[in-house]
Amino acid sequence: MNWDWDRLQQQRRNRQGGGDGGGRPSPDWEELKRKLSQLTRLRISGVGILIGLIVLLWLASGIYIVDPDEVGVVKRFGAYTRTVQSGPHYHLPYPVETVQTPSVTTVRRIEIGFRTPEGTSKLIKAKFRKVPKEALMLTGDENLVNVQYTVQYTIKNAEKYLFQISQPRTAVKEAAEASMRDVVGDNEISDILTTQKFEIQNESQELLQDILDSYNSGIQVSSVKMQDVHPPDQVRDAFKDVASAREDKSTLINQAQAYRNKIIPEARGQVASIRNEAEAYKETKVRQARGEAARFDKLLKQYRKAKRITRKRLYLEAMQDVLGDVQQKTILTDSASENMVPFLPLNQPSGTKRGLPGEAGQKQSSGDN
């Protein structure tokens, strides 16, 4: 097109330079109109192509991809239309329809009572920045306590999360503060510092979830975890002393319980042993008594049949029991014992049993009677 215009200008200059007597030639208006018409058609066709490309790109802008951990929320002129899952999708180009793709599997974390600088490991406590305004709470027994805790949550309903609350993170943070203060206000400081931490976390999580559900927030609370719980710095030493005393008390109670658990079984074992021995002794004596009674009954029957013989036999058996261990025996008659002077057996070794002659004689004469 530029080449045609240059040729047209050259022809015009040639006409001006020629002619009779150096006169100016008349322009070729038909040729000029033809060239201008051709140029206009070329420009119109180029604009059409450009507009077509723009329209094509605008239509292609509606293609989008939802990642596996996301959902797509489509809005038409700002109003919710539909929710799509992961994969490639298409929506009418902007400004007719727009799409938001929030992650529904990402665990979001909020710190309350402290802040961890970005890029700092959460295990380095020296890098924590305390926020006393959020951490200071009033307990049920009217004491102050600093509670630093974290809240973790995920998105369970993307539509509610995007359209029911304007600032989800702020809403979760404020609701978490309210729930924790409510639960801490129902407990005493000694329980908060020692034994009730797990119960307080669970109660606070349940209350926080109820609050967020009442907002239709579409948020699922994963956990509420207490990072650090301590009394205010001004009275921390006093609380440490109290805690140490409670630990000593618990230690002594545990020692006493251990001693009790040791002594009671031993005592029960001794009681059982003594009871068994007593039962055995009782059974032995009862059986011996029954045997003696049965022997006496039989002996009585024999005595009734032959009194003199039975009496004589009993006497001999008694003498056998009494004198059975005596090595030297002297037996005297009644007449001999009357003229006998008692004497000590000085030639006998110490400890040897020996009956007196007079006594033996008396027993012998009584047996003869």
| CATH fold name of the largest domain | Tetrahydropterin Synthase, Chain A
- Low-pLDDT segments, ≥5 res: 18-23, 353-369
How many domains?
A: 5
In total, how many beta strands?
11
Derived structural class: alpha+beta
Distance between the termini: 180 Å
Gross morphology: rod-shaped
Indicate the radius of gyration in whole angstroms. 60 Å
Summarize the structure.
The chain has 369 residues and is an alpha+beta fold. The protein is built from 11 helices and 11 strands.
Describe this entry's structure for a reader:
- The chain has 369 residues and is α+β, with helices and mostly antiparallel strands.
- 55% of the residues lie in helices and 16% in strands.
- It has five domains: 50 residues; 38 residues, no CATH class; 124 residues, 2-Layer Sandwich (Tetrahydropterin Synthase, Chain A); 69 residues; 45 residues, no CATH class.
- Helix 5 crosses helix 7 and helix 8 crosses helix 9.
- The longest helix is centred in the C-terminal third of the chain and has 70 residues.
- It starts with a helix and ends with a helix.
- 12% of the residues are buried.
What secondary-structure arrangement, pairings included, does this model have?
Blueprint: H1 2-17, H2 29-60, E1 63-66, E2 72-76, E3 79-84, E4 87-90, E5 97-100, E6 108-112, E7 114-115, E8 129-130, H3 132-135, E9 136-138, E10 144-155, H4 158-163, H5 168-184, H6 189-193, H7 197-214, E11 219-230, H8 236-305, H9 307-323, H10 334-338, H11 357-368
Antiparallel strand pairs: 1-4, 2-3, 2-5, 6-10, 7-8, 9-10, 10-11
